[in-house]
Amino acid sequence: MITLLLRNISRRKFRAAIMIISIGLAASLLVSLEMTTTVALYSALRAYTEYVGDFDIIVTKGNFVLFNTSEVLSKIQSFSEIYAIGPRLLFGAAILRNVSTIYAVIAGINISEEEKIGGFEIIEGDLNLGKNTCILLENIAKVAGVSPGDNISIMFYDTLGYLRSLTLKVVGIVRQYGKLPADMNSVIFLDLSFSQEIFGAEDEINFLAIKIRPELIDPRDVDWSIRNIVGLAERIQVCLGFEFTVSPLKAQILSAVSEGLMFQRMLYDSFASITTIMAVLLVLMISLMNIHDRLREIGILRAIGASRIRIFTLYFLEVLMIGTFGGIIGLFLGISVHYLLRDMILPSVLHKYAENLLVIRIETLATGILIGLLISMIGGLYPAIKASFIPPREALQPAARRIKLLEIVEKKIAPEAIDSRLILLGLGVAGSISMIAVMLTTMMISNNLRTLILMLFSAVLIVIASIILIFVGFFPKIVKFMSIVFSSIFKTLSRIAGRNILRYKHRSIILFFMLSLAVASLFTISFLANTQIEATEHSIKLGIGADIVIYGREPLPENITSQLEQIIGIEAYCPITYPISVRIGDVVYWRTAYVKIYGIDPENYTHTTYMEDFNLDPDGIATINENMSAMISKGLAEFLDVGIGDRIRFEYGRKTYLLNITHISPKAPGFAFTTYESRAQGTDILVSLRTFRNITGNIWFSRILIKVRSRSYIEQVVEDIMSTLSDSYDIQVASIEEYLERSEEALKFLEKIVSTLLSFAIFVAILGEMLSVMTAVKERTWEIGVLRAIGARRSHVALIFMLEAVMVSIIGFLAGFVAAYIVTYEATYIMNAIGELGISIVIHGETTMRIFLIVVIPTAILAYLASYVLSGKNIAETIAKAERV
After folding, report:
1. What predicted TM-score, i.e. pTM, was given to this entire model?
2. Which letter, b or e, does each residue of 707-746 get, where b requires 16 or more Cβ atoms within 10 Å of its Cβ?
3. Crossing angle of helices 249-293/308-345, nearest 10°?
């Protein structure tokens, strides 16, 4: 059996190689994603460990209340899971240096016990702590200007509240790793016993770091590691009593990091699965080709007594063997792809932690093999079953009679007829799944984000496949139309190509489906990314309101605007008051809502904000200049059942006020306005500065919106604002450019990664197209010979095959584009239903052309070259060979 399997594979080396490559690509993607996720988890954990501390559990009491060291240690030292215990005494101090004072943290540590928890990198000196000696972190040593051997004077309050001073000799300057949080740069390390003595805390500490045995934490098995950490922390908590606080810090970090990375992995796996689908379809197509070529072999085996089970086993094992080879190749290829994806996926801050880190687990090795077997099993099952049910007589009949029977079958199945069943199936599935997806998203039935994302991805994939099925139903008519279109250039050759596509309709449809699915996935990512970039820009503009916003950490006075007028580049500005929170309603309080009222200058607001981007009415906003007039959101107006000319009521400062509604708007840049009645609670109301002063009696600004003369001035204006105002006011300045750059960079990053994953699917589809051309050339040897005999050149023959490939590619491109557009339209509809933006689909012509060229050009070139080379034999030999088949 094995010998026969290997012989059959070797007889069709090229096809086997194509199957192995496609399976290997699919397996390599999933293997590399698993490896990259594991490395990312290791790297993130190392980064957090360096930042937070190289310990797993923290024990404190209250707000760093002192507790007895010996008593606590005696209770917990018996736990076998504990690897190291680091008792510490932390308190504040000040270094007196010349005329300056430097504030620092004193950390009393037991240097011998601390060797297992974190570490020190010695810059100068040594670690020999003793009485009246200390170690300084590099940062505070530079600020204080001291070196090993120098003395420093410190002051601190002891446990009795007395101010004490002390002179210490510096014995070492170090960098720390995992001792204390990395942002604690001003730290003085003392010997624990000595620090307890000077602080007046004999045998007492206020911080206990515990590290468990390393073998009990494995980032590859997060749940198991968390159980070990939390389980030990619970037993320590019970042992010490509930006056202590026991925090399983490492478990919290592991949980947070793994949750984020697993969600990311799930998203990437979803798109990588497209390549797996491509590989399954390619295995299916090649297996069907092999069975068609080996009909006579099947007939002979059945004639000499081979059972259906044996035929099935023979062909199924052949595919499984190829799948195993593909899985093994994918495993090794996945290591190379891992390095590519690692550089793309890992944030730059984690790159240094991932260097020289390669994590290959038994599960990873198994994944590659299992993926290869799974793809081959799914793709090879139907062909193996089909082979086992072929009757011996049909398999052994002469080729001429078999061709005649195939012609009869072709007439029965009408290859040029529209398949209405597929069209109805596609419409039904696409419509129902789309409705379910919209309902799930808008109603938010699933509170689990990962589950919701998986459901939505599955829905998108099913909708795309259903839309492509509709195209499959119309496939014959589309092919005929394409033949007519191309006939204006290639005349008779295009009609021959169209006829041949329909003669091998099932193979053409599989190729078309593969290309369409890959193209649709690429276009969907591109459409969604570009649409989301625009949506994010609209959202940021609506939320921030202007080019630059000055936020006051303290109330800003009215005269601050005089300083802004001195800054070159500012075209307009609009101060916004601190809000007052009130309960507002109609005159009789029949319906009420809780809102915030802001005071603005309507004219300045109109000139400063992004009103034009949202088609808002400046004349309507100007109406709130009237005393005791207000502008409210459309959603709030519907909620209160009021309109322009009505009045709304609220109480403030034991007084009742009535505001006249002079303008209703769905949006207001910089403020919380809504279109929907259900979101009216917590929205904003805008009044003039005069009205706001009449209500509150004073005006203090919380922020200032600024419009610059040109977007290119924004960065310079931000610097000028900070240099002009920061010395007098506690402010924070934010620009829209900063927000837009961050959001666009993140979305482009995601698009780049996913497009890279999907490019594998495109490559597999092109491999299938190339294989189809080469198989078609071999199957149509007689036809090629006849064409050559009646005067057709090799270039004409190659052109026919190229036109076949190009037609299928163009139809696949169009089907993918339409499917992606419909899916993106639905996604945009959902986003508009959930949000307030009203965005439309963004299609970039450059992206569209690039995908078109990626799909059509390689296919055309490969088809032409393959058919040109394979059709170059002598005409007489070609016809003679065809007659012998």
Report:
1. 0.67
2. bbeeeebbeebbebbeeebeeebebebebbbbbbeebeee
3. 140
Show the tokens assigned to 770. 């190339």
Cα 732 to Cα 138: distance, rounded to the nearest angstrom: 30
pLDDT of residue 230: 93
Amino acid found at 486: F
Tens-place pLDDT, residues 188-228: 999 999 999 999 999 999 999 999 998 998 877 888 999 99
* pLDDT band, residue 473 (cuts 50/70/90): confident
Band of residue 493 on the pLDDT scale cut at 50, 70, 90? confident
Looking at residue 446, what is its pLDDT?
Answer: 45
Alpha-carbon gap, residue 227 to 233, rounded angstroms:
10
Q: For all residues of the chain together, what is the average pLDDT?
A: 82
Place of tokens 């699917």: 761
E strand or H helix at 339: helix 308-345
Identify the CA nearest to 814 among candidates 504, 482, 496, 489.
482
- What is the rounded distance in angstroms from the CA atom of residue 450 to the CA atom of residue 588? 47
First to last CA, the chain: 27
623 pLDDT more than 90: yes
Mean pLDDT, range 30-52, rounded to an integer: 79
Structure tokens at 334: 């996945």
pLDDT at 479: 87
Residues, the chain: 885
The per-residue DSSP string of 176-233 comes to: EESSS-TT--SEEEEEHHHHHHHHT-TTEESEEEEEE-GGG--TTSHHHHHHHHHHHH
pLDDT for 433 = 63
Provide φ and ψ at 663, rounded to 5°: -155, 140
The Cα–Cα gap between 477 and 417 comes to 7
Question: Given the structure tokens 């597929």, which residue do they identify?
Answer: 422
- State the Cα–Cα distance between residues 294 and 311, nearest whole angstrom: 12
Please, how many CA atoms are within 13 Å of residue 753, restricted to the half-sphere of its CB?
24
- Residues 649, 651, 652, 658, CA torsion sign: positive
Q: What's the one-letter identity of residue 684?
A: D
- Closest listed residue to residue 500, CA positions, set 422, 398, 410, 419: 410
Helix (H) or strand (E) holding 731: strand 731-735
Are the beta carbons of 244 and 280 closer than 8 angstroms? no
DSSP 8-state class, residue 671: S
Contact 724, 563 (CB under 8 A): yes
The DSSP secondary structure of 525-540, one letter per residue, reads HHHHHHHHHHHHHHHH
Q: How would residue 444 be classed by pLDDT, with cut points 50, 70 and 90?
A: very low
* Position 307, amino acid: S
- Residue 771: its H or E element: helix 736-779
CA atoms within 13 A on the CB side of 24: 20
**Which letter does DSSP use for residue 825 in this model?**
H
Q: What does the pLDDT read at residue 400?
A: 45
Q: What is the pLDDT of residues 411-440, one digit of tens each?
A: 544 555 666 666 776 677 666 666 665 555
- Could you give the angle at which helices 781-789 and 794-834 cross, rounded to 10 degrees? 130
Identity of residue 524: T
Whole-angstrom Cα Rg for the chain? 37
Give the tokens for residue 817: 């584009």
Q: Give the model confidence (pLDDT) of 769-827 as tens digits.
A: 777 777 777 777 767 777 777 777 888 888 888 888 889 889 989 998 998 888 888 77
Give yes or no for a contact between 662 and 631, defined as CB atoms under 8 angstroms apart: yes
Q: Which whole number is the average pLDDT over 125-134? A: 92
Q: Which residue has the higher pLDDT, 379 or 9?
A: 379
Cβ-based neighbour number of residue 823 at 10 Å: 25
Strands 207-212 and 204-205 come out as: unpaired
- 8 A C-beta contact, residue 652 and residue 696: yes
Beta carbons within 10 angstroms of residue 268's beta carbon:
23
Query: Coil, helix or strand for 248?
Result: coil
Distance between CA atoms of 460 and 826, rounded to whole angstroms? 10
